[in-house]
Amino acid sequence: MPVVVVESPAKAKTIEKYLGGDYRVLASFGHVRDLPPKDGSVDPDADFAMKWEVASDSKKHLKAIKDALKDDQNLILATDPDREGEAISWHLLEALAPALKKGSEVNRVTFNAITKTAVSEAMAQPRQIDQALVDAYLARRALDYLVGFNLSPVLWRKLPGAKSAGRVQSVCLRLIVDREMEIEAFKPREYWSVHARLATPGGDEYDATLTSLAGAKLDRYDLPDAEKAAMAVSAVSSRDLKVTGVAAKPASRNPWPPFMTSTLQQEASRKMGMGAKACMSAAQRLYEAGLITYMRTDGIDMAPEAVHAARDAIKAKFGDNYVPKSPRMYKNKAKNAQEAHECIRPTDMMLSPDKLKVSAEDQRRLYDLIWKRTIASQMEAARMERTTVEIASPDNQVGLRATGQVMLFDGFLKVYDQGRDDDDAEDSARLPAIAEGEAAKLVPKAFEPELAKARDKGGDLPDAPATQLAAPGMLADQAAATAGRQHFTQPPPRYTEATLVKRMEELGIGRPSTYASIVTTIQDRDYVRKDKNRLIPEDKGRLVTTFLVKYFPRYVSYDFTADLENELDEISAGDLVWREVLGRFWKDFSKALEGTSELRITEVLDAIDEALAPHLYPPRPDGSDPRVCPLCGQGRLNLKTARSGGAFIGCTNYPDCRFTRPLSAPDGEEPVGDRVLGHDGGDEISLKTGRFGPYIQRGEATEEQPKPPRASIPKGWDAGSVDLEKALQLLSLPRPVGNHPEDGELVEAGIGRYGPYVKHGPKYANLPDVDEVFTIGMNRAVEVLAAKQTRGRAAAAAPLKELGDHPDGGKIQVMNGRYGPYVKWEKINATLPRDVTPEDITPEQALELIAAKAAKKGTRKPAAKKTAAKKPAAKKTTAKKTTAKKAATKKADDKTDE
Q: How far apart are CA 30 and CA 62, in angstroms?
């Protein structure tokens, strides 16, 4: 029977079910070959010849495919329908070539969705491997290798503590660093706005904003301070007001197009706080289950049959009014074959989220998002009426405006509205019935609740006349019917994963299959941290970016990177020769590398020190020189490197002055250096900074005591706030809590390698908070120790969840192991993927994991029972194969890393 090769076992199982017994479907587990991580894998002097190596964990997968080809030489390569999938098929063909006899039939098939119809149609329309797409992959892979394996060593040698550089990841990091520098350089500007609460003759209230003063239109900064705002408040409150105009205009909003990769990642981040990697992982599972179309695409068009299916679903669920007269068609400018794919959509439009039989919460939520966006994209527009009311005084000295809208027909908004990142939502306030010429009466006490709330928050009061009310950030007339609000311009917001992906897309940097891995890589390498969903550059990331901008400006240029991406797209379209593109790139890049060969670390540090000076040495409140050492008052501060890697700020008077501080001190934190905190029992207690951070020391090293008592400053403590009392507390650890009530053995509390703990004999239990080490009593200590014991080995034997019986007999259970939860059946233990929790796993998923693990062990049945003497060897083998499984799973999920 013909051999069909796909990428994942889950996909193989689904497709084998569709094709029936006439085909044998096997999985490659992602890429089977890659460039060895060593010099010479790409040789520019040999016309960019590339040396490929079969991964150790891929050899058994290739062997299984070769064994299957012994029975039938008809090979069908059915990997994913993008450039990366085309490359995997090419690698498979190259690796399998020795096993194929002359005249063997090899075909390539692609399908955009794993449904019976899509698979059957694809099998009926085989083709050959698209060499242009393969060439684009080879060019991209070679470029990433040449940059990574040539630029990273330069970083290691010239910038201690740096980890690596990448062709696209370094540009992505620069985006985050540049945004942070914008924020730091931003100077807020004050301005005020004035508002009034008005009422119609019938008593209905509405809000209006001052738009003109003294007969002139007000611009944003025309009320720059409280004094001008107070004058404007007086001008409004002292005049009669009348409605001079009412204009109601119809408006409509059309739906958003269906998802492509980048917009799916952005919306998953906005609405669900889901990172790009987690989003793509969940989407991969939905695709493999046949629930959505392929999730790596730049296309927003939808197949005609899918459009009609969506319209039918809308009609059935919401009625004829929500179906537009003609189908909505969405198109974008496709640059290459990959971008000609369909949008991301459900394969069955009638399968609404409430009918979905998927247990994993992240997959359910993502499917809900995709289904709603797809359905909404084919729905009728939302219709509304926007009303603008103009109010003025008889002398035309003041003019106000009230705006609002009324929803006439919700249309697509009944199902879905796209989230926003940092933009203000449009004004959707409802207005009462208002007639032109009627009086607009000020409403007394309208702003009293807001004024009271502002006072509760505290802060400085604005300078307001005695005749007006004041609160922090506000002022109002005596009747509290008119109020001024203080505002400050805001710096550009830090990137979220959603806005970063959006910005990369706008600049043309990276491609759909790379966004998730790029954003993940810069976080994994500690160049960037995520705080409240915002991406903040670490000092290490700043140093790397500054170094690259200084010595390799072209290769972290947004325009250069985008132009190179366009050339790669032209290669995939067959318009450029990939080796010629590489040749031009390497000629200039190798010269840039040579230009750094003579650089000394001190030169690099001086250059970075100068470039980062505004960040490293911000102005001091007293106006003194920020470079003067605050400890000795004589030395100058400059950038230094640590033995353990990384960098810090130190004094030029070292070793006489041992002042040090990290590159970035938290707001309000005073930098610290070596200093004496006080004396205890004749010993000097001092705060010092070592290679592993700040620590407390009692006395000084002597011949009799070369290692005096020391205690590290706990993580989370501010070294600048450590005084003698805290220092003595740290030096007194471990602290005796008392004797255990059951056996009388001493219970102690301390801080160890893994954080704060309590100890009872040989038993340890972690404490959640460092400060608890100094306050914990016996009752709490016994409780913590008992809780740890119940989580120990004795309780691990109980299953977390029972999943029923295996078709071949025997119970399937979810267990809690040393390295996390796993599925157990007989002698097969299969680790749960990171995105699947014990509570969510289904019997079907468990059977899949067991089958994959059994296949890796070379059997589909539980291993025969072995004698006690052979058990250790079996255990060792299992552990080794578990590692291989994890590597294979990661390889299949993370296709591209730039």
A: 11
Residue 62, token pair as written in the block: 């290739």
Residues belonging to the chain: 898
* Long-range Cβ contacts of 470-474 (<8 Å, 24+ apart): 474/447, 474/450
Q: Which domains does the chain have, with CATH numbers?
A: 3-129 (3.40.50.140), 161-186+493-603 (1.10.460.10), 193-253+391-488 (2.70.20.10), 261-380 (1.10.290.10), 733-787 (no CATH), 801-852 (no CATH)
Q: Which residues, 6 or more positions from 384, have their beta carbon under 8 angstroms from its beta carbon? A: 250, 251, 252, 253, 405, 406, 407, 408, 409
Give the C-alpha separation, 543 to 848, whole Å.
Answer: 46
294 a catalytic residue: yes
Cβ atoms of residues 292 and 367 within 8 Å: yes
Cα angle value 537/538/539 (rounded, 5°): 120
d(CA 382, CA 405) in angstroms, rounded, equals: 12
Catalytic residue from among 294, 416, 555, 757 = 294
Q: Are the CB atoms for 682 and 660 separated by under 8 Å?
A: no
Tell me the β-bridge partners of 650: 638, 660
- Render the burial of 194-209: b for 16+ CB within 10 Å, e for the rest: bbbbbbbeeeeebbbe
> Position of tokens 């590398």?
593
Six token digits for residue 73: 């030489």
Residue 808 structure tokens? 């071949």
Identify whether the C-beta of residue 82 lies closer than 8 Å to the C-beta of residue 336.
no
Q: Spell 437-446 as b/e; 16+ CB within 10 A means b.
A: eeebbbbeeb
Helix, strand, coil fractions of the chain, as percent rounded to 5: 40, 20, 40
- SS3 of 347, please? coil
Q: What is the per-residue pLDDT for 691?
A: 57
Using CA atoms, how far residue 670 sits from 334, 496, 648, 695, 848, in Å, is 54, 30, 15, 16, 56
Beta bridge partners of 192: 486
- Determine the distance from the C-alpha atom of residue 617 to the mean position of all C-alpha atoms in its chain, rounded to a whole number: 30
Nearest residue to 412 via CA among 545, 318, 526: 318
> Which has the closest alpha carbon to 538: 663, 643, 418?
663
Residue 68: phi, psi to the nearest 5? -65, -35
pLDDT (mean) for 496-500 = 90
Of 426 and 186, the one with more pLDDT: 186
pLDDT at 65 over 70: yes
Q: Do strands 482-488 and 474-477 pair parallel, antiparallel, or not at all (unpaired)?
A: antiparallel
Under a CB-based contact definition with an 8 Å cutoff, are residues 631 and 657 in contact? yes
Average pLDDT for the chain = 86
Q: What residues contact residue 714 under an 8 Å CB cut-off, 6+ apart?
A: 730, 751, 756, 770
Asked if residue 741 has a cis previous peptide bond (ω within 30° of 0), the answer is no
* pLDDT for res 692: 65
pLDDT at res. 578: 94
- Percentage with pLDDT > 70 across the chain: 89
User: Alpha-carbon distance 656 to 639, whole Å?
Assistant: 17
